[in-house]
Structures are given as C-alpha cells and as structure tokens.
Amino acid sequence: MPTQSLERELQADVVVMGGGIAGLVAAVRAAQHGLRPIVLEKLTDARYVCNSRITGGIFHFANLSILKEPALLARQIIEGSDGTADPALVQAVTADVLRAVRWLQSLGVRFIRASGADYQAFVLSPPAVQHIGWPWRGRSGDVLLPILETQLGRLGGQLLRGHRVTGLLMHEDRCVGLRGVDRNNNEFRVQARAVVLADGGFQANHGLLRRHVSVRPERLVQRNAQTGMGDALGLAQSAGAAITDCSRFYGHVVSRDALENELLWPYPWLDELSRSCVLVGADGRRFVDEGHGGVHIANQIAQLADPGAAVLVFDQPAWDGPGLERALSPNPFLERIGGTVHRALTLAELARHCGLPADALETEAANYNAALASDTLAKLSPPRTTGKFIAWPIRTAPFYAIPVAAGITYTMGGVAIDPYSRVKRADGSTIDGLYAAGSCTGGLEGGPRSGYAGGLCKASTTGLRAGEHIGAMLATAEPGTATLS
User: What pLDDT does 2 receive?
Assistant: First the structure.
C-alpha cells in the first residue's frame, strides 16, 4: 500500500522556481528590499548542474560588448531577430544590462576582460576554458552561483534543494504561491506574495522539442546540462500566459559523433568552417544560407527531416583557414578525440565515403564555385550571403567532409513577459503576482535567422528587474494588501 505523502506549508514574500542565475538574482535583489525569498531548486546536489553552472561565462548582448550604447545593443537585437523581439523588453534590458553586471560585482562576483573579441569585455572569473571534456568545476558559473546563494542566506532568504515545483497556487486570477514535492516525495506548498518562474529552457525535453523545434529531437546533441525540461512553460500556460515563438534555440554546429561521444561537446564546434563553406543534406544539395552563421545553421540542421543527415564539405585551404580559427579548433582536435573527418582526392570519392550521391555533390560544388567567382552567390537556392562571413571556394584537393549535427544549448522562446518581467497574457495584460526570468522567457531572441541575444545578460537583467519590481511593490506593503501592477 503506497505511503501517503505529508503536505508541508511554507510562507514567503517571494518564491522562486529555479536556482540558476536568473532565479538567484531575482531572489537576492528582492531580499535587498527587505523581503523574505525562498528559492526552490529541483536538483539535490550541493553543486546542482544547471546551464548557469557550466556556462562559458561571457556577458554580452548580440555579440556586442555591454559597454556599447544601449541604443546600439537594442538595434542589434532587433535586427538579429528580424523584428520579432519585443521592442519594450529589448529597450529595458539593454538599458539595464551594465547596471546588472555592476550589481553582481558589488556582491563579489569577479570578471575579467578576455584578450579576444570586443564582446568579451566581461567574462566570469576564473574563466571557463575551451578544453576537451569541459572542466567547469571551480570556474565561471560554478563560482558565481555560490556567491549568490551566500548573499541570499545573509539576507534571510533560503535555497531549498530537492524541491520540484508541480503547480501554481492561484486565487481569483492572482498567483499566490507554488506547490510541489520534495526529495522524499512529500508534498509542499509555499504561500507567497509574488512568484518568479526561472527554471530555464526546455532543451532537454524531447516532447517539447518535437512540438516546437525538430521532428527528430533524439538527433540533436544536448550541448547543455540536460536538466532544462520546460516546466515553467506549462505552469505559465495553465495560468493563461502568452507564449512566444519557441521554434528557435541557441546552439552550435558539432560533429555528429557527439551524439555518442561526450568528449565532442561542447567543443570543438564547427561554426567557423560551417559559415565559410558548404552544408549539404542527404541528397547532396545545400539547404541553408551558411552566411548567417553557426547558430542559424544549427537551427536549420534541426529542422531537417533527418537532423543527422547533414554534411559539411570543404577543401584543404579551408581546413587550414577557418578550420584553425579557434583555440580548440576542429583542425586538429576533432579527429584526436574521435570525430569523423573524411578525406578524398575527388568530390566523387568523397561522396562515396559519406553516402551521398556523387553527381549531386559535384554539381552543387560546381554551381557554388561558379557563383562565388561571378559574385552571384545571392542567386543560388538557397542564397549565400557574404555580409558577415567570407565564402570559401571548394577547389583544392584533398577535399574534406564532416558529418555534423545541431548542438542545442538552450531554447530561445518561452513565457511572454513585460519590461518588469511580469508574465503577460495574450491581450498584453499581466497576471498579478506572477513573474518569469531567464531562459524560460521569450521576447528577446529568435526570428527567421535565429537571432541570439545572450543568455547570461538575459538571465541577470530579467532577474534583476523582477526582483526590483517585486521589492518596490511589496517592501512597504502589508502582507495580503499589495497589488503588483
């Protein structure tokens, strides 16, 4: 006879679902306003492995330094999303992103300026390193999260591990708490004056991926902590929340062998080669405009009938060019750790190695080379843009082919929020008492070219704005009297 679980009642000013960067930032900022927050984290380990813990640690918006003018950052995000991003939300987060980072610094979070691109002006310290096997312990997010947790405790808040949220508590269209089960399968309820959903994207949930992203989610490489199940998405919908387009994700082009070989993710990725050369499907034909970059290419691979059928094709100069661009580059590291790299003296022979139709691949390469030579790449189908990245010809033997896959890091769409991180309904009104922050939210990223804003800046800024709005509304109000409007 099954044991009946015991229900535990907790009280808080603010209850947060998710112990990543967004959730902890919201909780700490609310606590600084004198409120009592509780953060519920479903994982049980002291070092619970979420995307925030294993992050690369670069704080940027749309591959621009957050030291840039907010108007420039906003324009870059809007353009990258092809106008699908919410202008009011974009304006709010770009105006506050530098303040959010300065606030983290005030808590003791350390940053360095990397020696690479301009957008690496703020990198978590000690920095994550590109290394086989991804050694995240003691670096980047693994240092940031304990700092936030310590600050939360000092301010009177709590982080409860092993507490999985299963539902919202609603009263007269207002969210008044959360319910769930703890690690011992005992039920609990947290009554609160405000609720923040911040459990990340749905990148590890095959059912949601199949509905929104890919017909074959098992053929996507989980380039993430594999804990993001999208629970907040369903909870918000149950309360009447609007959901933005969820068909895009942030990720990279990786070796298809990464589906079986864990050493091949998160690095080396194949973005530099992919955006410079040619991607073909099982029919030997191009299927994507490679000039839009690695995140877009990864999304287009995911949308194939078989996302495991894509092949990257290039020649010797490209292997010695973009193939060497990164610190942990595919040349030579991919083969050293078990990744497949085909070589051949002719394209026909290369096609046989890859199981592609030789005539189709030879024709595609000839058409591509001719268009490149005559500056008519835009007339190809699909077109090949060159505004951001140079197109390399495929002329010089030996020729190369790498079977590739889409590596998914986090999903871009989700719960619709306003500039204060309040959850919105389809008519634009907000659900009283309910907030969302971080990767479970939409409105900043996506669009036809899979425009990428930046997960860490999105998480910290939407979390900060949620905590501040809750604090401003509740800090001086009597319990049970505040209306979050």
Answer: 41
Residue with tokens 């925030």: 52
- pLDDT tens, residue by residue, 394-406: 999 999 999 999 9
Helices 455-474, 87-106: crossing angle, 10 deg rounding: 90
Closest by Cα among 341, 348, 340, 344 to 365: 348
In degrees, rounded to 5, the angle at the alpha carbon of residue 249 between the alpha carbons of residues 70 and 314 is 105
What's the pLDDT at 480? 40
Round to whole Å and give the CA distance between 62 and 87: 15
Distance between CA atoms of residues 145 and 157, nearest Å: 15
The amino acid sitting at 295 is V
Let me know: does 419 contact 436? Beta carbons within 8 Å: no
Q: Which token pair is 44? A: 């049980």
Query: Residue 285: left (phi > 0), alpha (psi -120 to 50), or beta?
Result: beta
Question: What is the predicted pLDDT for the residue at 477?
Answer: 55
> Which residues make beta-bridge pairs with 401?
313, 342
How far separated are the first and last CA of the chain, in Å rounded? 48
